[in-house]
Amino acid sequence: MSALKIKKGATSHSAYNLRPTFSDTVERHTLAVIVDNEPGVLARVIGLFSGRGYNIDSLTVAEVDHEGHQSRITIVTTGTPQIIEQIKAQLGRIVVVHQVNDLTVEGPSVERELALLRVTGEGEKRVEALRLADIFRANVVDSTLDSFVFEITGAPEKVDAFSDLMRPLGLQEIARTGVAALLRGE
Amino acid sequence: MARQMTGAKMVVQALKDQGVDVIFGYPGGAVLPIYDEVFQQNDIRHILVRHEQGAVHAAEGYARSTGKPGVVLVTSGPGATNAVTGITDALMDSIPIVVLTGQVPTFMIGSDAFQEADTVGITRPCTKHNWLVKETERLSQTIHEAFHVATSGRPGPVLVDIPKDVQFASATYTPPEKTKVSHYQPQMEGDIETITELVEALETAKRPIFYTGGGVINSGDEATKLLRNLVDATGIPITSTLMGLGCYPASGKNWIGMLGMHGLYEANMAMHDCDLLINIGARFDDRITGRLDAFSPGSQRAHIDIDPSSINKVIRTDFPIVGDVATVLKQLTDVWTERGRKVNSEAIGKWWAQIEEWKKINCLAFTQAGKTIKPQYALDRLEALTKDHDRYICTEVGQHQMWAAQYLGFEDPNRWMTSGGLGTMGYGFPASIGVQIAHPDALVINVAGEASWLMNMQEMGTAVQYRLPVKQFILNNERLGMVRQWQELLHGERYSHSWSDALPDFVKLAEAFGAKGIICNDPADLDDAIMEMINHDGPVIFDCLVEKHENCFPMIPSGKAHNEMILGENASTKDAIDAGGAVLV
């Protein structure tokens, strides 16, 4: 192959292009996807994300129209603008997907998440936990002599902040629903 | 008129109502009720393959050569998993296929029953859509919906998984016209404003090019007709991907050959230097674009595609047009005509002069000398001796496939069946069977490499059983030629496992199946041998022993741009440097 002037044993070449050219600014988008409520639909959506290497930060799903057999999947994802466009287009071509809305683009929108936190502690810590819960407007939904279960609703950042504060005060366990989001009225 | 029938009968009735005349399949426990119904009718012909992968490829060959969906019937478990490669192949190349699989009875699903597999789970990522039908009431509607999904929008494979108890139970049959209208209705018309902007750009472009793909062929004959009219009326050069060969005739005056990794020099240079690139039904595949940041650097890009996810996936597009190729080409032609059918003729004349300079390097030149057949020579002779026949060509995957694309000319769509996206070795032979079933009197040739061909050689049984005169034209270099080429060029000539040490005697192999075998190793005998193959009324294995170390050129090494091609030793490289200032590595 000397006639072709290719260096012998050159391994820098590959069967694929190894130089991605996309922008690397990562954006966070909230997508609302209306789907037929049928077996396997969530697997289709999740399989798309894992198969194509997209990120899922949060995902919630529940039936929203019992008569019409439709569910709403709310997905919070991150990626470059090009990837976000791809995610929307790829979701759109799933046969059982009726509609894909990018709430981040179409916004403004409201995002809410619910979390349950069990905090155990005694004395001053217990009082402090209760005081902070009051500030965050979290409800006590279960109580023993040495524990509380708090219920908090809010934007994901508020839930983050609350759970960060609870950690030194005896946070044992947390359950979060993931984000539900809706466009604001005009 | 409600008609009660068993699920198994419903399957056959639904296929008849969908206009299916042939299915490719292999029976097994979980589809016995359907096979029993197939036995008791004569409207639908069943072709018994020898492996389920072969059934899907045969259905693909049928679909691609007719434009109609191909239908496959296989059993549960291994029947379904064997079909997965074919299904994935059809997905990558957008071929409409309806696969019906048997499943264990509904009450046994999840119990690890004999020949149970999670078929819808396994095939979810490799089908356009799939269904597990748990009630016989829903079966006929689901099959009709499956045909709709497979054939509308960007075509693709779909799968309907039918448990055995659903096949036995009875319910009311729903004919296609009574089936609920699907919400899946892809957008056909393009955005007229964007189309008008594209026409404006086309009127002034100095170096425009049409870059067409399989989407034109999938869109149908009307798309091909509109494309040819538009190309000839505008005088703009046209190139095509591997998948799109035949949408514009190879003998047409504006044809500049296939583009891409093993595309023609003039086509790749024109892609690199153009100022307006009009992509019609292609998808900027990585075998086409080469290095992305150096792809067609000075051009505005238009992209017509029915699949919105294809647009802006890898290449930023200035004129994104989502729609069916035929519909959009009609709109585009109308707008262009209304505005007075203008093009920048003077500049396009210069553009053609430049392209003619590139053509002069004669990138496909080769020298047939000595007693060993060059693979290029073999295809050159095959082209000369078969081009006037009613001819269909299939290929396997590898060097022979690229040479076939380079040296054979395609005048019409649906005449060229090759595995593009997935690159499935073993595709061509069963595909040729599907093509021959659809076109019993045509000359169907599978250009193969010996390694690919061996991957589905069991289908000789099918070819012989149905007396299908498919010609297996094997370019035998006793090597995995393309792997060997990459190892030579990029892996220090360490030929790791890229040769076959125990090849069969192909003539004896053909005879063992009751077919004809021909061997040829002398260039002087080649024409006679090819004629003997063509004139034999039955399946033929043609063992063409070729030069073992021939490389396939031109070649864009990955990570390189379109203007950084490697050319063969016979190309007139001097002219190229003079003409285009190209960097040849």
Biggest pleated-sheet summary of chain B: 6 strands, parallel
* N/C terminus separation of chain B: 72 Å
Shape of chain B: globular
Number of strands of chain A: 9
**Which sequence of SSEs, written as H and E, runs from N to C of chain A?**
EHEEHEHEHEEHEE
- Name the structural class of chain B: alpha/beta
Separation, N- and C-terminal Cα atoms of chain A: 68 Å
Oligomer: heterodimer
Radius of gyration based on Cα positions of chain A:
23 Å
What labels would you give this structure?
heterodimer; A: 186 residues; alpha+beta; five-stranded antiparallel β-sheet; four-stranded antiparallel β-sheet; 9 strands; disordered N terminus; B: 585 residues; alpha/beta; six-stranded parallel β-sheet; globular; disordered C terminus
Fold topology:
The complex is a heterodimer of chains A (186) and B (585).
Chain A: E1 27-36, H1 41-51, E2 58-65, E3 70-79, H2 81-92, E4 97-102, H3 103-106, E5 109-120, H4 123-135, E6 139-143, E7 147-154, H5 156-166, E8 171-176, E9 180-183
Antiparallel strand pairs in A: 1-3, 1-4, 2-3, 5-7, 5-8, 5-9, 6-7
Chain B: E1 3-6, H1 7-17, E2 22-25, H2 32-39, E3 45-48, H3 52-66, E4 70-74, H4 78-92, E5 97-103, H5 119-123, E6 129-132, H6 139-151, E7 157-163, H7 164-168, E8 170-173, H8 192-204, E9 208-212, H9 214-219, H10 221-234, E10 238-240, E11 255-258, H11 265-273, E12 276-280, H12 286-289, E13 300-305, E14 319-322, H13 325-338, H14 345-359, H15 375-386, E15 391-395, H16 399-407, E16 416-417, H17 428-438, E17 443-449, H18 450-454, H19 460-465, E18 471-476, H20 481-490, H21 506-512, E19 516-520, H22 526-535, E20 540-545, H23 573-580
Parallel strand pairs in B: 2-3, 2-4, 4-5, 5-7, 6-7, 9-10, 9-12, 10-11, 12-13, 13-14, 15-16, 15-17, 17-18, 18-20, 19-20
Antiparallel strand pairs in B: 1-8
